[in-house]
Specification:
The chain crosses the membrane at residues 12-36, 269-292, 320-346, 366-392, 413-437, 663-687, 719-741, 753-777. With 791 residues, the protein is an alpha+beta fold. The protein has 3 domains: 52-263, no CATH class; 407-442 and 657-791, no CATH class; 451-650, no CATH class. It contains 25 helices and 22 strands. α2 packs antiparallel against α14 (364-390), α17 (464-476) runs antiparallel to α20 (627-638) and α23 (708-740) packs antiparallel against α24. The radius of gyration is 34 Å and the shape is elongated. The two termini are 40 Å apart.
């Protein structure tokens, strides 16, 4: 206890050193702990499923057409689920919805229609009742399993919900047979209900078996690698029975760990942000080492006197270590407090950018990480200097007080390292900012601003086309609405869209072209300001009983017809289980339906009036305040049983795609600002201490006729020389580090542009001049007599 009291007195006697060191340690530890908590909650913590690391998703790819991430056909999914080697279980599913109507209000429940292997692959057991069985799926029984959220919010957590009948609009009632635990939301999101998907009831020659519509989840068998599973699945997809005699290259399977699917492209950005937070901590530790060295240099004479009076090196070293331990402990406490505050901000910023934000907390593991940082970093940074001070009493008694900063390449390396790490942080932040700027300037191919979307799946026995025409008339008449149109799938929605294989009627032996299919009304293209490249747009005359027509995108026209004109050509399109020959009447410009970072994919548009379907999205441009409510009221007036699936502004999906880039740019920018501030402080401390140690030398030189500006120039050269070495090393570190990380989520391709390098160098030059400018100014104004008295 006496040693602790003595250490506290020593720290209290040097408040400048103590407060500055604590502030820097708290900042470094706080940022590192906050990012480690984020990394742990999003990436490192296991999934809430048994052996979650074996859970995979499966998609299809077609290298010849540069298609990736496609859904599987019924034939492919069934073959894959039939005992593929290396898979313990595999299930497939399709997104849908059911509508409940209580006599006054309609409510839609998001639904997964699933095969019997779905729950087996996830390894999840029901909270109540049972899950869907193979018999349920095979016989297409009218049964359903509820999600935990739907059970709580839709049915009040009623423990007697099993056996309850769900009355659906224009569908047979479903009997509730089970309730799933809340953990399943990690995979299924807002899905509220699961029901059987009886694909086996489709005839073997049904064209619907060739539609790419199914999502697939699987579980690897123990000891099986992802590559082995992919090879086995690809072999199943290449089976002639699966391909059904279709021409062209066979599709391949692409397996991906579910955690990667969940996190997406944010993995590399999260690791990069964590690395930058650690860089800030290292810069803080280097600065603390500089301050410790300066303080211990000033105490060398005191240490020597105490040794001369009988104090042992061990006791002096132990006293110093106690001071450092107290400093580290206080840094951990303050750092954890700063991290707790920072996590509130991080969670708010990351809510729409990063999954699993609920897991970003300070738990025992995160606290242990903070203690590890607080104990190891400052002690390791200062231990060598402390031992040198305790071992040099004779030199100190003779007046040797230069300290660690007094000379030597190793000693001058501290500010160089700080500048290098700060430069790397700044270049990384500028690179992310440049990536965000580029993403924001990418043209999606359509005008999203001012467009409101009301999306739903149509129920009821009324014919689709008359219903849509009446609703479009009502929407167009709303106050402020400039235009209204219909589509089966709005751009970037992912709901109601379908992928089909297009064939050219004149060349049936050619490989089919994968394209997205949209049903649209006249005016859809004009409302979204999608340019017409050739031919004509749809008009009200394109209805049932007239020749089937279509618009194709520029990419689809190029894939189908090469350099030949697409207008007037006939294309085969699978629609509602049959192949329909449609005549191309126009070519429209490409849109980026898969994201701003993806190349435009081929698309084909057909008139909704000729090829109607249940998926509907009504778009309006303009409108006064309350347009969404007015649109919902117009729908309810036509059919109060119709529930809305989603109501949103069309610009929202684009903003959501930009959200991760904005989050990481802001986070890394904050880290870079902290790193730059710490590096400037460290460089200033070194320059100021070196200038102070040379006061006597400067005074003598001024007394014998040296010019003050020569003194200032010398201090500037010394400080800027160290900074230049640090900046060069930092540039190399940034360029190498960015190449190692996958930062595609934030629009960064892994290279640093010359403009970013130039901006980073300019910023660091300004920072270095700021850091050494004041010591240089002081060196030029040292009074000779005062300097001689100091010496």
């Amino acid at each position: 206890m006496e040693s602790i009291r003595q250490a506290l007195r020593q720290l209290a006697a040097a408040p400048g050193f103590t407060l500055t060191s604590l502030a820097m340690l708290a900042l470094g530890i706080g940022l590192s702990v906050a990012m480690y908590s984020t990394l742990d909650g999003v990436l490192l913590r296991g999934l809430p499923f048994p052996d979650g690391d074996r859970l995979i998703t499966v998609s299809a790819r077609q290298p010849a057409q540069h298609v990736t991430g496609a859904q599987l056909t019924v034939a492919e999914a069934e073959r894959a689920a039939d005992g593929t080697p290396g898979l313990a279980a595999l299930g497939y599913y399709w997104w849908s919805g059911v509508t409940l109507f209580d006599g006054e209000h309609a409510r839609e429940i998001t639904t997964h229609m699933v095969s019997d292997g779905y729950f087996a692959a996830l390894g999840v057991e029901p909270l109540l009742g049972r899950r869907l069985t193979a018999e349920d799926v095979r016989e297409n029984r009218p049964v359903a399993v509820l999600s935990y959220a739907e059970w709580q919010h839709g049915f009040g957590g009623d423990p007697n919900v099993l056996g309850r009948s769900l009355d659906l609009v224009d569908e047979a009632p479903l009997e509730v047979v089970g309730v799933m635990p809340p953990a399943l939301a990690t995979f299924a999101g807002e899905t509220g209900l699961w029901r059987p998907l009886a694909t086996a009831q489709l005839p073997a020659d049904s064209p619907q078996r060739a539609l790419r519509m199914l999502l697939v989840v699987g579980r690897l068998a123990p000891g099986v690698s992802l590559a082995q599973a992919e090879a086995a699945l690809t072999a199943r997809m290449a089976d002639p029975l699966v391909r059904g005699g279709n021409p062209g290259e066979a599709w391949q399977a692409a397996a991906r760990p579910f955690l990667d699917e969940l996190v997406g492209d944010a993995r590399g950005a999260l690791w990069g942000a964590f690395a930058l937070a650690v860089l800030v901590l290292l810069i803080a530790a280097l600065n603390v080492a500089i301050l410790l060295d300066a303080r211990q240099a000033a105490r060398r004479r005191e240490q020597a006197v105490r040794q001369a009076l009988g104090a042992s090196r061990a006791s002096l070293g132990r006293a110093l270590l106690v001071e450092l331990a107290l400093l580290a402990g206080a840094g951990v406490v303050l750092g954890l407090g700063l991290a707790a505050l920072g996590l509130h901000v991080l969670r708010d910023l990351a809510a729409e950018s990063v999954p699993r934000v609920d897991g970003i907390v300070i738990d025992r593991g995160v606290a242990a990480f903070a203690v590890l940082l607080g104990v190891s970093v400052p002690l390791l940074a200062a231990l060598a200097g402390a031992l040198r001070i305790a071992a040099a009493p004779a030199e100190a008694m003779r007046g040797g007080t230069k300290g660690v900063l007094g000379g030597g390449g190793r000693r001058r390396a501290l500010p160089v390292l700080a500048m290098a790490l700060s430069t790397a942080s700044l270049v990384a932040a500028l690179t992310l900012a440049a990536g965000l700027w580029r993403l924001q300037r990418v043209d999606p191919g359509f005008a999203a601003r001012g467009v409101t979307v009301m999306q739903f799946f149509r129920v009821g026995s009324e014919a689709f086309v008359p219903f849509t025409e009446r609703l479009l008339e009502r929407l167009a008449a709303l106050p402020g609405v400039e235009a209204a149109a219909l589509t089966s799938a709005p751009p970037r929605s992912g709901i109601g869209s379908a992928s089909v294989d297009l064939t050219v009627a004149a060349r049936p032996d050619n490989a089919p072209v994968q394209a997205g299919l949209r049903r649209v009304s006249p005016g859809y293209r004009a409302l979204l300001d999608i340019p017409l490249v050739a031919g004509r747009d749809f008009d009200v005359g394109d209805r049932r009983g007239t020749e089937p027509v279509a618009l194709v995108s520029r990419a689809a026209a190029r894939r189908l017809f090469g350099e030949a004109s697409a207008v007037g050509q006939v294309v085969g399109v699978p629609i509602r289980g049959a192949r329909v020959d449609v005549r191309v009447v126009g070519v429209v410009e490409d849109i980026r339906n898969d994201g701003l970072r993806s190349a435009p994919a081929p698309e084909i548009l057909v008139p909704f009036a000729q090829q109607p379907g249940p998926a509907m999205a009504f778009l309006t441009r303009g409108g006064a305040a309350g347009t969404e409510a007015a649109m919902a009221a117009a729908l309810a007036a036509l059919d109060p049983r119709q529930a809305i699936t989603r109501h949103y502004a069309l610009a929202v999906p684009i903003e959501e795609e930009l959200a991760p880039a904005r989050f990481f740019a802001r986070t890394v920018g904050a880290f870079a600002a902290a790193a730059l501030l710490l590096a400037v402080l460290g460089t200033y401390a070194v320059a100021a201490l070196r200038q102070r140690r040379r006061i006597g030398e400067f005074g003598l030189r001024l007394a014998i006729g040296a010019r003050p500006r020569d003194m200032a120039a010398e201090v500037l050269r010394d400080g800027l020389g160290l900074s230049a070495v640090g900046v060069a090393a930092g540039l190399a570190l940034a360029i190498g580090g960015l190449r190692l990380l996958d930062l595609s989520a934030v629009g960064v391709a892994g290279t640093v542009s010359p403009a970013v390098l130039a901006a980073g160098i300019a910023a660091m030059v300004i920072a270095a001049l700021t850091a050494v400018g004041l010591p240089a100014w002081r060196a030029a104004r040292v009074p000779p007599m005062e300097a001689l008295r100091t010496e």
